[in-house]
Amino acid sequence: MTQFVPAELADDTLDIIAAPNPAELRISPHVEQVLGRAPRPFGDWVARNIAAFR
């Protein structure tokens, strides 16, 4: 990341990403509207796709 932005900005960005606030954790109802199905946990996606990353 520091190849593209100053180190302080990279650190601040990673701090923000690492500590989402409650509003950022809320799953939007638009997810289901766009996907046409209920959202699933990221871990489910990982379990289905882990082989592609080995």
TrEMBL record:
Tree of life domain: Bacteria
Protein's name in the database: Oxidoreductase
